[in-house]
Specification:
2 copies of one chain form a homodimer. With 461 residues, chain A is of the alpha+beta class. The first copy, chain A, has helices spanning 3-15, 25-30, 52-65, 117-125, 141-146, 154-157, 160-163, 192-196, 230-243, 255-265, 283-299, 311-322, 324-331, 346-363, 389-408, 427-431, 434-445; strands spanning 21-22, 45-47, 69-72, 89-92, 99-103, 108-111, 129-130, 164-170, 176-178, 205-212, 214-215, 219-226, 247-253, 274-281, 304-308, 336-339, 367-372, 377-384. Chain A has 17 helices and 18 strands. Chain A has a 7-stranded antiparallel sheet, with helices on both faces. Chains A, B: Its cofactor is FAD.
């Protein structure tokens, strides 16, 4: 244990209760990894604050002793965001898990950062409301805001950043600020909401979030459409988007991934490239949208399309899609999952998916493609044996190729998983001189570089 | 002419052509004011760059000589944004007015900052597309991005910030950066798009914008609904929003403002609080939405509702609403217009509008209320005789009361007009300690404080 850690420990125990400060190895191990393949690293201390004031006191101490701090939600990140590579203090927000207020008339909800997505939706259901962002994992809302999470519903409802109306943030020196207001729009001051969302704990710790929620739609229809190729499936989606039909979800799952789904979810879907779709709205409008969509799909060579309006059938269909990552994990025990995450302009998507499919086949690793094709964002899921250096190298080279392909077409290295440690090396290539702007902001707001160092920007200390 | 201005002038004439640099008094006067009541002030020099490289050279010189720079679109701002209170150089972007690329398949368009909203929409119509943000004035897109403009369509399509996919920005030292990419979503790096949109020329000059566009909806219906009180009108809108019916526009115009509209637009609308509405979508869905809306309106005491599906009638209806500001100006020659611009949580809107109406009546100035009620944003338009000190004081005190009312309810001092000089004094009250975060960002990116000084943040030099 370093001197500074020895010094801060009794101080932390003064501002927090005994059971809110842990140096237990098991606890530290639980905070040393996320759901990715990235190398683990232990924090020195894990703290469990119960309120904003405690977080502020922790930050004041950490800033004084210049000890790194990593905010931690549930550890479901996929690029090593919460792995404390410089050790130090991990702030676990699991005790700050209260839904503070449902402002039904304002379509807003105020929550603490440790509230999970499913916990919030369970509560909102009582009001006929729902929270739209669905990244698959049952992440905390604080973590989702920190990484600007998105997912299957983004094509209609937007990303996490679009839902954040206000954040209470504890800065590096312990100062507490609010980044927004309860107004639906504002032209007052710099857009701090947008800056802090997606900052991955490098600019501050979120202690309260005010989020937009929506009325549960009157009617919902799900569909599954089978295509002869990923290209024809993607082209069908592009055409639908151009007509302005408001699709609520549209996911592409390739042949190999359908095989994994069938095995894990005990379904017997045709093992061909498939679109999973969802539409919502009023009954009459929905009917017309669905008919028009069907026509467009058939024009693009769709060989089979099945609709599910019944709630149970719809849930079963989406569960199969949602369980895809677990299907890969379950079916490949002992291997680690690497997921690529580029996003390209929609017009480049069909070619990009074909490119990825060919590259994936050529390296001979187990893996499939899936994508939020309405946004141009797709993933290759690879299962790798981390003890096999050649396999790891192949997977990393594949990931790099996909990233370069996307950046050459003015896309992004990460559509929704975030930078963490895994995409840090691509920041200069993607952002060019804009990366220096980000570095200047980081240095201005966290001069001692204690907040989640080495993530997004890599400041030399 | 100061020494530094004398020094920079020949240097500017080296990087620009003779006719791109002006010290002519008439030209300077045209760049000394916007459409507001704020005091005018002359720039020393006005420059007219033709490309990014020229803007970069101008900024390098200005930074070297530490001369203030104000970027200028069309001067349609309402809070003195482009008035150069420290004199210096005004960069007029009127020669950078090219639509560079329409990426039909990506629903994106790339433009130079001097392109106006109507110019863009004229071009997009050829593709069956439109640009959604409509602030009333035919502003430039660079100016609209700088102020995070919004307007009548925001309730459905969002504010300017929601449309910006990428900006090319020239920073204070002449460095050129891109703030985004062409991908529909990204979790890569800090959200510079969001930070630069709404920065009102204080962080950089925009030289290229990539913007989202939309397919022109299949069907559109407009409506005009008359209510016995502003309160019942606002409550009706709140109920409609809660059901999730996607209204494309919803504007409130009060009794006095309807009188001004009737006089200016030669209409004979009932002089009672009125909602102007618009719905778009597919034919069947729209019909169902309209019927449901009508029911809700009647539940809230709507006394008359008229629908217009015909294109000409619809345009006439919206022209009347759009001409409201001009109706006030036209009907009150010699007076200047002051427009308040607070935005409150929707649940507070009905009371806020009643409060503003009562205050307005009590001070006895000519004025009316209008509002983007779907967003909780409303304006009081006051016509003031700037030579009458008592009248000016009354108007300013009214504005201040409205701002305090909104801030006490967790709203914002400006929903869409921006900070400029007029709302600078409320920034500390609204943002608290977050204002210091904004100041740190400003100092980090513009250490010599040359970019539109005194606006948004007031850095002591």
């Amino acid at each position: 244990m370093s001197t500074s850690i020895e010094n801060i420990l009794p101080k932390l125990k003064k501002v927090l209760k005994e059971d809110q400060v842990s140096i237990n190895l098991t606890v530290r191990e639980l905070h040393s990894k996320d759901e990715s393949y990235h190398e683990i690293c232990l924090p020195d201390i894990v703290v469990f604050p119960k309120n904003t004031n405690e977080v502020s006191e922790i930050m004041k101490l950490a800033n004084h002793y210049q000890i790194p701090v990593v905010p931690f939600g549930r550890g479901s990140s996929l690029e090593g965001h919460i792995i404390p590579y410089d050790n130090g203090i991990t702030i676990d927000f699991s005790l700050m898990d209260k839904i503070l207020e449902v402002r039904e008339n304002d379509l807003l909800v105020k929550v603490q950062p440790g509230v999970t997505r499913s916990q919030l939706n369970k509560e909102l259901k009582k009001y006929g409301l729902f929270f739209s962002v669905d990244p698959g994992a049952d992440a905390t809302l604080g973590g989702m805001a920190a990484t600007n999470a998105s997912g299957t519903t983004t094509v209609k409802y937007g990303v996490m950043r679009d839902q954040v109306r206000d954040l209470e943030v504890v800065l590096a020196d312990g100062t507490v600020i609010h980044t927004g207001s309860l107004a639906a729009k504002s032209a007052s001051g710099f857009h701090l909401n947008g800056l802090f969302v997606g900052s991955e704990g490098t600019l501050g710790c979120f202690t309260e979030l005010t989020l937009r929620v929506y009325g549960i739609p009157e009617f919902t229809t799900a569909a599954r459409a089978v295509f002869p190729s990923v290209q024809s499936a993607v082209e069908a989606v592009t055409s639908i988007l151009q007509t302005g039909i408001p699709i609520a979800r549209v996911e592409l799952v390739d042949e190999e991934s359908i095989r994994q789904v069938n095995r894990f979810s005990e379904t017997n879907y045709v093992e061909s490239p498939t679109l999973f779709l969802e539409f919502d709205g009023n009954e009459a409008g929905l009917k017309q949208d669905v008919e028009f969509t069907k026509e467009i799909m058939e024009d693009h060579g769709c060989v089979d399309i099945q609709f599910e309006t019944d709630n149970t059938a719809r849930t079963k269909l989406w569960d199969a899609r949602h369980n895809l990552a677990y299907a890969y994990i379950h079916g490949n025990v002992g291997k680690k999952m690497m997921v690529t995450d580029v996003c390209v302009p929609i017009s480049e998507l069909a070619d990009a998916v074909v490119y990825a499919r060919n590259e994936l086949s050529s390296i001979g690793l187990i893996g499939g493609l899936t994508g939020h094709v309405g946004d141009g964002n797709f993933h290759a899921i690879l299962m790798i044996d981390m003890t096999d250096a050649a396999e790891v190298a192949k997977a990393e080279s594949f990931n790099e190729k996909i990233v370069h392909y996307a950046l050459e077409r003015n896309g992004t290295c990460t559509g929704e998983h975030g930078v963490g440690i895994g995409k840090q090396k691509y920041q200069a290539l993607e952002h060019g001189a804009a990366l220096q702007v980000m570095e200047k902001i980081k240095i201005a707001l966290d001069p001692n570089n204690i907040l989640n160092p080495k993530k997004i920007v890599n400041i030399e200390s």
